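Sample intake sheet
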Amino acid sequence: MNRFKISTDPFHQQYVDIEPVRRLAGMAAEILGSERVLVRWRKYLENPIDMKNLSPAELEQQYINAIKDYPCRFTGRAAGKLAELVASSKLVSRASRPRIASWKPATRAPPTMPKSPRF
């Protein structure tokens, strides 16, 4: 492992308490060295947003603010929730809209058995 990455954005803060994330970041820096620990969106680690107690309208506004602050590619749950919001939002210019990839579970074809030779 070259680098340990921790996400602290508002999308995670809606579901994950910040204090365990702070402890994790501190312990990881002590063990691995701070140069090997990447806290993604550190601003939200240092000044978390209480996403769990916001109304739906306030949540949407925080999502838009986060997208404005850190335009990037979203995947997973964030992509599902944000695709429609960003597409219809006049608050985020088309040029600065992030790429949003829809999340789909990996699908695998059922294993095939090699044909046995006929005797």
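Comment: The CA atoms of residues 67 and 98 lie 7 Å apart. The two ends are 51 Å apart (CA to CA).
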